[in-house]
Write a structure and sequence with these properties.
heterodimer; A: 442 residues; alpha/beta; Rossmann fold; four-stranded parallel sheet; 15% strand; B: 473 residues; 2 domains; 14 strands
Chain lengths: 442, 473
Amino acid sequence: MNDILKDRKSQIVTKGQDDVAIACGKASIAGSVSQRACVFCGSRVVLYPIADALHLIHGPVGCAAYTWDIRGSLSSGPQLHRLSFTTDLKEREVVFGGEPKLYQALIALIDQYKPKAAFVYGTCIVGVIGDDMEAVCRRVSSEKGIDVIPVMSEGFNGTKKDGYKLACDALSKLIGTDNKTEVPEHSINILGDFNLAGELWMLAEYYKRMAVNMVACMTGDGRIDDIRKAHNAKLNVVQCSGSMIYLAKDMKEKYGIPFMKVSYFGIEDMSDALYEVARFFKSDEMMEKARELVKEEISHLLPALQEYRKKLEGKKAAIYVGGAFKAISLVKALRLLGMKTVVVGSQTGNQDDYNLLKELCDEGTIIVDDSNPNELSDFVKQTGANLFIGGVKERPIAYKLGLGFCDHNHERKEALAGYEGMLNFAKEVHASVCSPVWKFMK
Amino acid sequence: MKDTIINTPPKPTAEEPFKSTRNACKLCSPLGASVAFKGIRGCVPIIHGGQGCATYIRRYLISHYKEPVDIASSNFSEEATIFGGGANCHAAIGNVISQYEPEVIGITTTCLSETIGDDVKQYIRTFQELSGDKKLPHFVTASTPSYQGSHMDGFHEAVTGIVKSMAETGELGEHLNIFPGFVSPEDLRQIKNILEDFGIDYILLPDYSETLDNPIWDAYKRIPDGGTPIESVKKCGSARASIEFGTILNKGSLAGRVKNNVQANSVGDYLESTFGVENRRMPMPIGVSSCDKFFETLKEVSGKEIPLKYKKERGRLIDSYVDGHKYIFGKKAVIFGEEDFVVGMAAFLNEIGIEVVLAASGGESGHLESEIKKYCPENSASILVKNGWDYELIHEWCAENKPDILIGNSKAYYIARDLNIPIVRCGFPIHDRIGGQRIKHLGYAGTQELFDQITNTLIGYKQDHSEVGYKYM
């Protein structure tokens, strides 16, 4: 039995052994059981948290059913995003076209739910049968007086990353449409936070303590009206750069708004995210507030972390997550707990991310792009990892092999960002790695 | 696709505008087919379509079974969509063989590959020709465009496909075929125990009792142990009889079809018409009446007595019905999920005095109402039966009609929470609890667990909402 498919070898490197650059950004290999999803998934997850918009999926039932309430993205107000709407196409529409159904569905849903805008997602089949989704959206938009934005996210048309880009294009159509609202001087947009388990609210609170104003978050706890005025911000602070970097670049080009890449996971990266913003606004006062904030937070956090570190020191971790930028923060956060990363990989990382990972990790660490269950199970066995950090699809791999598991996916119910999040992270890692149940696995 | 006569014109759109499906109470057909393929020994499913289909379906199944569920994808690109998915299909088969060395590869299609007219069977033939003398896995296919029927149609399509590709004629045996439908791994184990206690030789298909509910492993298994072996499926054609649970099966796949296709066969029908294996079809054995039918049938076709153990189980179940009857009588229940599950559950609730006020399914067989009325003689007139419903329709109906309890999968939890109605989780999927794969529904023992749970849920709800919090019932 082949351990690693021949065509995948270039996507796996071991630090200290392979001196070549990792291959990435490639389409998944047929039959490889990739953990990736599709273009539609990319668009859907990015736009999903916009809570006062209607999200209608034009296609057969599956695409909507599998993405119903899929993210733990919280909203402080409307909950419309948590409903799953689909045109539920049947053979009849595949043969005769689905435009009438799409039109009728949109009209009825807009009448019933009165959304601020609507996103219509095209799935594989729509691309094949040739429905003119754009024309239907234009018509409904003019009849109902709200923006109805087509997202042509046919699943086969690229990878999940292409879906991110389409989602950014959709947001871009809304940005700049509200020029009446004035925003305070020190204003930022937060890009690439999805308010999982209320993480955005924590971040917004940190920035508020530094007297930084948030215009829009894209897309956690998102609102259409906020997105419309996002071009008034002075700075875009981008997390999860994989999904939102397209939008940041687009806004820089169109509105001259600079952007910076940050991460909110772990003490180091979280604190940097605050300092960088203060540095950008060239405000000593703001920097002073940031320092105070960090000092205060850390003074509670570090002693608490110490307890966990004692128990976790020397344990080994494997990381496989969606974006590589998150993986980088996780390596650092684990280090803070005394843990060593022995396997690290992502579904959609780019060359820069992987180079950074290689620099950061210890000798012998396996770095992998677009992996699959067979490889991951082999890697954790080879390296003797004690913990796996991943999502739903990685969890049973860890459990079957007797490893602890930390859920760092979009379904999670515990906030892992920020200072509070770092403590939650330590608690979760500790609860899993140090559980007595593992002794029965031997 | 033999018959190309279009006999159903497109629905006139002016009369009744289409309403969007809101929180669908069904899934797409490749999911069902993948589950069925997981019940064959040594089988790796491939979904012939975009990468997302396999990943979404894996994620959905893993969240329920809490097990590794490897399903490969042929990972369609734009090029494959335009020029056909043959090369992708071949690459996927080749890579699955080299990574997994499977005994069987089950290929299920998708809306995408069906619409562009990919001929998977032809691709397999070419692959076999190109491989020369090399030993290849057995191939099974299921035609499962997601715009046709629901996951149940995909499930039955795959089961029938498996049998069609393997069953052989032979001397009439003593063995029985058991086609349990889409039930939990725990229920599959129960069925096996019952047949073993009877001393009946049987073929259970599909059997994912181990593959989707593994014990802990020493080393990672690329293909989990268990599943119905090919050699057993071959013998389906020479069985004494088939027992098929479910009376609606894949009749829903005809909904929304344009072409006048031949009525989809259930696996029992197929074996009866092709091999002359008598088919005994019955609702899922939930409740005393349905279980009696199952046990009596086993007794009849095998000529063996019902083991004492089950007579006692039956006696204890009825004894508990008596203990609990007053707490549940006249309570109004809403049940939902796959059509055959809903029929089985309705029959059970009917016999214990719970009033089914709404029986809803996303399935669209058009047979749900007549089947429910057939198996709920006591209060059939008062049951509102809805084919093709979604959770939001159920939600709105419940808000207006205030039922006492919801019984079905975990997806309706949000309705229960919103309206403060207790919910009993059973069926598929159970995404917000552990142990979905171990929920018992079938047989006297399964019914016993359901009965206790439903009764205690109602008692508990009253207790929680009472002013004094009493200590006795």
